[in-house]
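User: I'm new to structure prediction. If I give you an amino acid sequence, what do you actually give back? Let's try with this one:
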Amino acid sequence: MFITRFLRLALIAVVYMAATAVIAQTRYIVTNDDIGFPLPNGVSFFSVGANGALTFQEQVNTHSWGINGGYFGANRVVTASDGAQPCVFISQAVSGNIAGVAVNTLSLGGVASGSTTDTGQSNGIGLVVQGGYLYASFTDSNTIGMFSIQGGCSLTFINDTAVIGTNGGGINAMATHGSMMIVTYTDGSMESFSIANGTPVSNGDKQVSTATVKSNDATYPNEIQITADGHYAVFGDTSTSIILEVSDISSGKLSPTKVFGTANGISSSNILLSPDGTVLYVVDTQGDAVSAFAFNKSTGRLSYGCSSGPIRGQSESWSYLAHAALVSHKGNGGGVYVAEFGGTSGIALIHLNVANGTCTLQEDAASPFLDPNSTGLLSIAVATSQ
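Assistant: Good question. You get back a string of structure tokens that encode the predicted 3D arrangement of the chain. For your 386 residues, that looks like this:
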């Protein structure tokens, strides 16, 4: 009797261990390949290995078309949960729709469109997720489409909100935190909205950024990051140098921005805050490097830390650097992955090391990791299977 019971318990343990192994989490870097007609677009999945190295797994065909380009700040791929599993959502500007992909099975979920007038064929469709909703910035029609996230990584369109910049600029980037949404426009203005009830409602704080005014429209805010406590919004500007702006939003509205920056770069359209909020990664979108700025979470001040050397392949393989994704979801993030836009698109891996108050950024020896399915990669994200 004892032996039989022992064997039964051992068998249960083996089955449990096998099941645990089967459902072990896999961390991916995912892309919106943004492929134009006639080839179909898709999401490419790269598994993350030792020291952050990427291995291409497969592309999930989404049966629609992108535009191989558009605004730097419009993020074309986001991750979210449908309540049962993790999902990846990508926008497809030529087709005017948004596709959902199930991460656990690497399979296509649903495909949804906004209203008949929603379009982003010229400069893309940006995406952001908050509170069970996905919001899409249709850059041609200047509308924010609101979608409800459904089971099976599908979406249901709810409504549109018409928006426009102070001087007629089109919608560019979006970011959300709690019940607040912040957007930037291509004329250098910015605006916040309340999304407490889902649909964006303006907070009445539309304004032109400080840097735009001081530069006589030679710079304008692009991508946005919001601190974890919702105290500050940080803007990376499209400029001839690295220009960063910070707005205190603790009142629930945008305050006039304070300007920081350095001449060590050409443009700073894409930025990313570290998980602990102490480091702001700045992508030199029209240059060839990534910089790190120390961020003071108490005062909202930024100070230059370090820059990487030239990232391999500029002009030969890629023309621009774009969206970034964190190497680690802890601490200072450990560095970033960066999308490389070009005829041979890829993903660069830049490691961050901090010692004795000094930082260094160094490209990994195995970088870049080529995306065989894209000739215009702008947007990447992190996804994890369950």
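You can read the tokens as a compact description of the fold. Here is one thing that stands out. The chain is about 5% helix and 45% strand.
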